[in-house]
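Extended Data, panel c. Modelled sequence:
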Amino acid sequence: MSKDPMTDQPTPNQPINHDGFEQEDLSSRSALYFLAGLVLVCLVVYLIVFGMYRFLDSYATAHQPPMSPMVTPEADTRAVTPENAETFPQPRLEENERTQFRSFIEDQDQKLATYDWLDKDKGTVRIPIDRAMELIEQRGLPVHAEGASSAQSSAAKNSETKTSAPVKKQTPKAAKTRAAASGK
């Protein structure tokens, strides 16, 4: 079991001793050199691009033709004043979302809480939602028979509105039995 002195390699007959790990791993020094080189290359590219854009900007400024004295500089069209906002067609962008949304909610709440005429000619009014819920609780919802057509239901509705007696709550089962008893 002798070693070859020229190559310092074990002879083919000699077993290889690894001591539990591989002898030739990637060294941390080479990984650090790679990262340092990568940072250096990125820095060089950044400086080249920065210098190129600076040169091109100064070149464009130097070779800009002079402005004619007949031309007046235009105002910045990106800045919108409140006076100009009204000239834009609908729909417009919101100027202040919170205050516009708050005023919209307040307007809706005011409509839900007050009486108002919707159509005076037809006698249609808007009533507060709380009052509408009370009326539905007192009178109940209108119940239509299952086989009734829309003409029959509108005629029945007109006859109910002309009577001054309050409408009693009816369950769908009671409406079916009354319709069956009347022969409809």
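Confidence is low (pLDDT under 50) at residues 160-168. This feature is highlighted in the accompanying rendering.
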